[in-house]
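Input chain follows. Return structure tokens only.
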Amino acid sequence: ASVVPSLSLGLSLSSPHLPPGSLDAFMRCMLVSRISRHVLAEHHLALSKSLGTNSLNHPEDPHVGIIYTALNLRDSIDKRVALLHGRPHDIVDEIGESVPNRGWPEVIVNGHVDTKFSYIREHLEYIIFELLKNAITGTGLDHRSSPNLPPIRATIVLGENDVRVRISDQGGGLSSARIKSPSDLFSFSHIRNATRMDDAWLGALRSASSRGVKATENTPMAD
């Protein structure tokens, strides 16, 4: 329970002392290794728990271990939207103003809305949660003086060999004077995000790493 906040704390403290390339290489290796072990362990436990039963015959969620064989993509998006709408403090804390008083931006799901495919549901919904949270935050910031917030669109596209989801918003994009190259957007380094070195942020991470938290959508690493 303390691994995620401890990792984030170490990342913050080491960021000023390591070149971004070296830090990124280490973090990618660390996270891929951690996620792969977690998947193997969870899949083994789920298979062991279902021993003697046929989970593929489950009418609503057929699955093998943690892999859902008919995952309904629109349902997963709707669940994440409902979760965000039920936790307004997550967005208010980032924007610094009361978005719910103006209402939430509508999330319109279009495209191949009946798409079902095989995937690990928890991983997919985690990604969708973060993308939607960023879209809502950006929309609220870019339209803070507007009485109404423009909608966010989640477009599902079913290809011959893949499934894609595009989250479109009117939040102003990612342009910033601190972003000098596209690789900066995907870097773990805090060199271009000085707020991560604030005493309040580091104190919160130290507190979280000492008491332990579960790796959910609300952990520091998720941000």
